[in-house]
Amino acid sequence: xxxxxxxxxxxxxxxxxxxxxxxxxxxxxxxxxxxxxxxxxxxxxxxxxxxxxxxxxxxxxxxxxxxxxxxxxxxxxxxxxxxxxxxxxxxxxxxxxxxxxxxxxxxxxxxxxxxxxxxxxxxxxxxxxxxxxxxxxxxxxxxxxxxxxxxxxxxxxxxxxxxxxxxxxxxxxxxxxxxxxxxxxxxxxxxxxxxxxxxxxxxxxxxxxxxxxxxxxxxxxxxxxxxxxxxxxxxxxxxxxxxxxxxxxxxxxxxxxxxxxxxxxxxxxxxxxxxxxxxxxxxxxxxxxxxxxxxxxxxxxxxxxxxxxxxxxxxxxxxxxxxxxxxxxxxxxxxxxxxxxxxxxxxxxxxxxxxxxxxxxxxxxxxxxxxxxxxxxxxxxxxxxxxxxxxxxxxxxxxxxxxxxxxxxxxxxxxxxxxxxxxxxxxxxxxxxxxxxxxxxxxxxxxxxxxxxxxxxxxxxx
Length: 462
Ligand code: BUP
Prior knowledge:
Blueprint: E1 7-11, H1 16-31, E2 35-42, H2 47-59, E3 64-69, H3 83-94, H4 98-103, E4 111-115, H5 119-129, E5 133-137, H6 141-157, E6 162-165, E7 169-172, H7 186-194, E8 203-206, H8 210-221, E9 232-234, H9 256-261, E10 268-272, H10 281-294, E11 297-301, H11 318-322, H12 324-333, E12 334-337, H13 343-347, E13 352-357, H14 361-370, E14 374-376, H15 383-392, E15 396-398, H16 412-424, H17 426-442, H18 448-461
Helix pairs in contact: 1-2, 10-12, 10-16, 14-17
């Protein structure tokens, strides 16, 4: 045909929190008549990532599928014990292998969109191949503004109480990702080495929208945060897709969905801390206690291991973690699952009235999309920054004194009280409905996200 094909290649990093938004972006690009190449680092860390990828490729056979075979890990990777961070390091170290992959693509690339943790290693490659290059930032625009601003003030933060980002607001010291306060962590390295290179990108895509972070997007694009940033595109909210649905095997077991079907509208609290945080045994028991005390029904996803592969063969009974007595009271009031659940399906269910969440960015956006109020309980990384923007928006709350993962054990009584308070607060429910409407407007004709995607397509045509 006479119309040149817009060909976009995507490269996600490790963990469901990075892979999911990339695949949802791929779906948006396909809807917008782009030809898509997906490059995935192999092998993946978790089984969930592998399953999601195979669902994606069977739903979209037209997507060109490429693998980046990672080099074996090295001794000096002992920078962290978190398998997902080790994988970040491994992808960074293997990224020179991208050169032949990218060079062989046909038709030539209109854009290459890669994970935000890969800027330093990928830049020289795409620059030498003259491929237009973008990152997908898989957290909030507020977190992005912190990422872009922090390197310039890092030297003076150790003694001060926070980071004041022009036009965006102050990030208190207690909300700064703890790994950033350790200068030898990979997280710090990515911030300090990659942050200053943002101006070399052709653009930054963020899964956010005007109704949620319009002011931040504006400040970033007006050069108020850091001068000479490339265009920042709010292309969210990414909508959960059909290929993510998991088969419900074992008809005899109560699935979350048929359990939810039996509960009254808005009566259930959904509890999940994401795919990467394993909560300690003591805290798990207190959460169980708190949920029972709240008096609300609950659906609770328990995870006590960081990577799902580890669970094979050594699955431990929940009774052992929670104790028989507590387990009995829990069974009377709620449903506890240890497996991967379809979170979007749960959040979209009419019986769900609140979400106790670690505030991983994908979870926040999914809650906004379905209009579910959040009780934030940030555990690591960017999560306090995300929790604060939810609470500022009035559609959720978080308890600052609950601290980071493992910092202290929060008592069940306190947890139950917090749930009761939020579930009874009508104004939070109203705000959550408003954020849902704003989310839906943004991806409709004339909405901010729709406009951003059109703008990108125009740029890619040239
Ligand atoms: Br657990 C779990 N089912 O059982 P976040 C998670 N999810 O669908 P994270 C399920 O995984 P990072 C489950 O809907 C979201 O899309 C959830 O991403 C889905 O947190 C994704 O919320 C989790 O960003 O990642 O995994 O802690 O730390 O990278 O943000």
